[in-house]
Amino acid sequence: MALLTVRRRGGEMFPAREIEDTYDRLGQLMNAALGEALGTLPGDGGMGAWVPMADVSETEDSYVVEIDVPGARKDQIDVQLSERELIVTGQIEEQERQRRHRKMRRTGQFELRTTLPGDVDADRVEAHLSDGVLTITVPKAEAAKPKHIEVSA
């Protein structure tokens, strides 16, 4: 059985990344389940915001967040960074059609909130929308980047 690792930074303990990922996914599942139960799925006449599917990954220099927002235009998306919390909100408008046979894509207001695992450089964040995927690159702060330590004999 693999053990979850606990990361320490500045004397504070941070939960393992696996726990945070599970928490985020549980929030998405609860939003979907309760939204359906309460009739608040956007596009169905409700008022609630839905959570788009997203991946958060890490490179040596940055955190990369990829969010599925099919049908969204860049002017319909707002990206904010508050300390380490990334907040992406927006609205996807439903297209007018003569007859609809099936509706599986969500429309209406959406919101994604995720806390990035380390310190970031908020002045160099970039966001790019292509083929229905919003890619946000959040550079790590110099203090959060791994440091190579030379071993002496």
UniProtKB/TrEMBL annotation:
A Pfam family annotated for this chain is HSP20
Domain (SHSP) spans 44-153
Q: What PROSITE patterns does the annotation carry?
A: SHSP (PS01031)
UniProt cross-references to Gene3D superfamilies, sorted A to Z: 2.60.40.790
Kindly give the InterPro entries that the UniProt entry links to this protein. A-crystallin/Hsp20_dom, HSP20-like_chaperone, Small_HSP
Q: Which family does it belong to?
A: Belongs to the small heat shock protein (HSP20) family.
Name of this chain's protein? HSP20 family protein
Species of origin? Nonomuraea jiangxiensis
Organism classification: Bacteria, Bacillati, Actinomycetota, Actinomycetes, Streptosporangiales
